[in-house]
Design goal:
The protein is an alpha/beta fold. The protein has 22 helices and 28 strands. The strands form seven sheets. Strands 10-16-15-14-11-13 form a six-stranded mixed beta sheet, with helices on both faces. Strands 1-3-4-6-9 form a five-stranded parallel beta sheet. The chain is globular.
Length: 754
């Protein structure tokens, strides 16, 4: 729950003392980065800053340029740190960012980015965590708890359906209710429920026909009424088309603000186009945030000092990057043995470590992987130019192994536009193919904000996904390549073999201002598994320099009501020679053969995970607790979450494709479903419902009488005829000789529970 709730009472008292003009002044910012405050009542303005992975406080507060900001430490991007699958790591990063914000007099930090990675082409994927809402939500919540442990407020963004940069200001995201509830909203729900974010940022896009910044169903009905949210809603910069409609819908603060905004809001209240109650509610939420920030500044001497601890934060950034990078492939080449190395690619010296746009920070310093090899007395040959294949192959003849530092160029990873391809630059691919063809042991280190295709993957000896690892990423790469750090990261998104395999390929980014989410709930691994498409690397995949074995998966009870919880446990042993960390992933698989027939569901879904540190031969037990929502799907007809009675498999794996153990439980729905049947209701639906069991025998007798001698008598004819009848509405019985009164009597009995 948001920390602002404790300030609500005081905020309401202050709002009652304000004039309409003063309240109207609060609901839009004072320029680019500040609120207006109310000096008469002692409310001092507060400042905010972009900052999912670093503080971007503008030196010129009238400007929104991304290159004129204070110097700060650049931590790993969301796409990198999500590979840690570790809430403690995200908490530490959030805590450091909160402390940095405090020293720069920032009260509201605009992060984390929590949108789902619908397509790997999204230009802003480097800011986001995952394709899976469970993983995204848990990591976002931990980040928020870290930020807000320092007294600074965090703002989870971009709410909601902001999954592309193409036409982001005007695009209408058409998302089914079920996909919205199961895929695109749960991460925000977890971020708020488990993280307690003080702020939510409304997105640029339109959602199902209504702009997010003035979408009452999204901002009031769901966010506040259903989720019991008590924080503030801040618009994305320039997202508000109508400030009057935005306030009415539940958007409390328009950013940036302009001189004419307060007068326009005040006039709308006078004209009756905006209710006094709506303005009051928005003003109270802005006041509550301001009160919290003002209190902190009174208590904390560090506020506004600018005394960021650069070296400590840089070291932390290196540790986090090392915890998060993913070793995708290793044929024994890594960790490197001391030998002469060929190092190819300019990213070995000047890595691509952050994306472009509003999250781009003016970093403290940038580590070079090559620099660490040289400082630690490795014999190296460095060739920055991928196009000079003869020089690369010539140098390789004198080296024991090659390290290729590849990846997407910075011009392709930015806010404001989407990628058009998953391919690496052709010169990079040619160089890698050439080295592999020459039988040179080759490790490829990839710097990219999201997934990439790798036509040379079968030939390469090792592949390390560094993503965009922050300013200390070069040191972290060195640590992993040399074995100083045992890699433990796992993929938070599926890597496809080719772009056309990706779930949203036929629909992304849409036509004109319409983006139809035709893949529906089948995002990421849910799609690949349902379609039987083998990815390049599956969701949750990641290698280590040691090995882990899993014990038997067990449930504390094998039968329970869905309003109860169940504990699941599994032991993991480090069977290798090195200390390492394993991430246990827990998935739930519905019984599609019985309990959920007629409901389209994924093969399985991630519901919990845990990262464990293990010494050689050490065994630890991971314990998880599953509840109602972990077995439920969203029933759009009922407008609620529903669990069907049946048997469900619980799966523990090292990745979505590497399941190490399973157990089965029976879940009994405690909710009595009342369906209303009509003459158009299908026979199969009636026979499948518990209340219909009392009439099944009679229906079968009628059908048997009507079909005698009419099915040809061949084996299977009777069964085929019955299947056809079960797909027909009950009114068909009238054609088979059952009276209308009998049919209506059956329906009345079912609908009245008789």
């Amino acid at each position: 729950m948001s920390n602002l709730k404790e300030y609500q009472r005081q905020a309401k008292e202050l709002a009652a003392r304000m004039t309409a003009a003063e309240k109207a002044g609060l609901v839009s910012g004072a320029g680019m980065w500040e609120t207006r405050g109310c000096e008469r009542l002692g409310l001092k303005k507060i400042d905010m800053s972009d900052g999912p992975h670093g503080i971007r406080k503008q030196l010129d507060y009238s400007d929104i340029a991304v290159d004129e900001s204070v110097k700060t430490v650049c931590f790993p991007s969301g796409s990198c740190v999500s590979g840690s699958w570790d809430e403690d790591t995200l908490f530490k990063m959030g805590e450091a960012l909160g402390n940095n914000a405090k020293t720069h007099d920032i009260s509201l930090l605009l992060g984390p980015g929590t949108n789902i990675k619908r397509s790997p082409l999204c230009g802003r994927n480097f800011e986001y965590f995952s394709e899976d809402p469970c993983l995204s939500g848990k990591l976002a919540a931990a980040y928020i708890r870290g930020v807000q442990s320092t007294g600074i407020s965090a703002c989870v963004k971009h709410f909601a359906g902001n999954n592309q940069e193409t036409r982001r200001f005007t695009v209408n995201s058409l998302i089914s209710e079920r996909a919205l509830r199961e895929i695109y909203l749960p991460a925000f729900e977890k971020a708020l429920g488990e993280g307690g974010a003080d702020a939510v940022m409304s997105a640029y896009n339109t959602l199902n026909g209504e702009p997010c910044s003035q979408n009452k169903r999204l901002l009031t009905d769901i966010l506040r009424a259903e989720w019991d949210y008590h924080g503030i809603v801040v618009s994305d910069w320039g997202a508000v088309a109508s400030d009057v409609k935005a306030v009415a819908a539940g958007n409390d603060l328009k950013m940036p603000g302009f001189d004419g905004d307060p007068a326009r809001i005040e006039k709308a209240v006078k004209d009756g186009r905006l209710s006094k109650e709506a303005l009051e509610a928005a003003a109270v939420n802005v006041i509550a945030l301001t009160l919290k920030a003002n209190d902190l500044k009174k208590k904390e001497p560090l506020c506004g000092t600018g005394t960021e601890d650069f070296e400590t934060n840089h070291a932390l950034a290196r540790t986090i990057a090392g915890e998060s990078m993913v070793l995708l492939k290793n044929n024994g080449l890594l960790p490197l043995k001391k030998q002469r190395l060929l190092i190819v690619g300019e990213y070995a010296v000047e890595p691509h470590f952050q994306g472009g746009g509003s999250s781009h920070v003016n970093c403290y310093k940038v580590d070079s992987a090559l620099e660490f090899f040289v400082e630690n007395n490795w014999d190296t040959v460095y060739i920055p130019d991928f196009s000079d294949i003869p020089a690369i192959l010539g140098a390789a003849e004198t080296c024991g192994a090659a390290l290729v530092f590849a990846g997407t160029p910075e011009s392709e990873e930015s806010e404001g536009f989407d990628r058009i391809s998953l391919d690496l630059p052709e010169q990079q691919n040619r160089a890698i193919f050439s080295l592999c063809a020459a039988k040179i042991p080759t490790a490829v280190i990839l710097f990219e904000g999201s997934a990439a295709v790798m036509p040379w993957v079968n030939e390469a000896g090792a592949v390390l996904a560094a993503f965009l690892p922050g300013e200390a990423g070069g040191g972290a790469v060195y640590d992993i390549l040399t074995g100083e750090v045992n890699p433990s990261g796992k993929l938070a998104e599926t890597f496809a073999k080719k772009l056309s395999d990706t779930p949203a390929y036929l629909f992304f980014p849409g036509e004109g201002d319409v983006s139809f989410y035709g893949e529906d709930i089948f995002v990421g691994y849910r799609y690949y598994e349902k379609k039987g498409i083998e990815p390049l690397f599956p969701f949750g995949h990641g290698l280590s320099y040691t090995r882990f074995s899993y014990g038997k998966l067990s449930a504390e009870k094998d039968r329970f009501l869905d309003n109860e919880s169940v504990k699941i446990s599994v032991s993991v042993k480090n069977t290798g020679d090195a200390a390492g960390k394993e991430i246990v992933q827990l998935y739930v698989q519905p019984d599609v053969s019985g309990s959920t027939i007629g409901v389209i569901r994924p093969v399985k879904e991630l519901k919990a995970f845990k990262k464990m540190s293990l010494e050689p031969n050490e065994t630890k037990t991971a314990v998880f607790e599953l509840t109602y929502r972990d077995f439920a799907f969203y029933d759009a007809v009922m407008s609620g979450w529903r669990v069907n009675s049946g048997r469900y498999k619980i799966l523990a794996g090292a990745s979505s494709a590497d399941i190490r153990g399973e157990t089965e439980v029976e879940v009994i729905s405690a909710r009595i479903e009342r369906k209303t049947f009509t003459r158009d209701s299908l026979m199969g639906d009636i026979c499948a419902v518990e209340a219909g069991k009392t009439v099944i025998d009679e229906l079968l007798k009628v059908l048997s009488t009507q079909t005698q001698g009419k099915t040809g008598g061949k084996p299977g004819d009777e069964e085929a005829y019955m299947k056809m009848v079960m797909s027909m509405p009950i009114k068909v019985l009238i054609l088979l000789g059952v009276s209308e009164e009998q049919v209506d009597g059956i329906l009345e009995g079912l609908n009245n529970g008789r």
